[in-house]
Specification:
heterodimer; A: seven-stranded mixed beta sheet; four-stranded antiparallel beta sheet; 49% strand; B: 124 residues; mainly beta; seven-stranded mixed beta sheet; 11 strands; globular
Chain lengths: 106, 124
């Protein structure tokens, strides 16, 4: 199974800050990497797929990069509605696996 | 609107069974692949099952293999998850999610949309 790790597990940031979350796979997954945002009591929502493609309707302050085993999600200017938990997920092979999540709060 | 709505969750005793449903609207499920993903209280996301568009191929996480069975009824535009021999550690919110695919250099796929989830509690 492909194991996914994320860092940090949580972070505190202010509105307007640039925030970067990293995700690492324990084997190469080329660009089969997605990012999701989950707010309390809500289902996850896809932000980025194929490592760097922005999902339609997602604000351009979100961006993704990386390939192979190392990936990152960047929020260029944190907004109040961005406080949430962020998960990476590999779609390279079954079982599909998620990272443990990164909580972004004030 | 493209939407998935889960139902069927509830309280069940260890060893019991439950059948979850996921009704799709705004699109036809017959051309799509689907998954179930669960989230234990206060924990992260765990993929548990996948069905191909034809229903010919199913995959399961080791944690549920042999106990859970995913199925689909294209006529009813719905997916199902039959859960048997439930354990306390199966307590979670269960989400169904469509698998979207795009052909770029490869067939990349991701979960979207997700249903709102249905809570399953396994307790005596």
């Amino acid at each position: 199974d492909i194991q996914m790790t994320q860092s940090p597990s949580s972070l505190s940031a202010s509105v307007g800050d640039r925030v970067t979350i990293t995700c690492r796979a324990n084997q190469t997954i080329t660009r089969f990497l997605n990012w999701y945002q989950q707010k309390p009591g809500k289902a996850p929502k896809v932000l980025i797929y194929a490592a760097s493609t922005l999902q339609s309707g997602v604000p351009s302050r979100f961006s993704g990069s990386g390939s192979g085993t190392d990936f990152s999600l960047t929020i260029s200017s944190l907004q109040p509605e961005d406080y949430a938990v962020y998960y990476c997920q590999q779609s390279h092979s079954v079982p599909l696996t998620f990272g443990p999540g990164t909580k972004v709060d004030i | 609107d493209v939407q998935l709505v889960e139902s069927g969750g509830g309280l069940v005793q260890p060893g019991g069974s439950l059948r979850l449903s996921c009704a799709a609207s705004g699109f036809t499920i017959s051309d799509n692949e689907f998954n179930w993903v669960r989230q234990a209280p206060g924990k992260g996301l765990e993929w548990i099952s996948h069905t191909s568009s034809s229903g010919s191929f199913m995959f399961y996480a080791d944690s549920v293999k042999g106990r859970f069975t995913m199925s689909r009824d294209n006529a009813k535009n719905s997916l199902y998850l039959q859960m048997n021999d439930l354990k306390v550690e199966d307590t979670a919110i269960y989400y169904c999610a469509r698998l979207n695919t795009i052909l770029q250099v490869a067939n990349y796929n991701w979960f979207d949309p997700w249903g709102q989830g249905t809570l399953v509690t396994v307790s005596s």
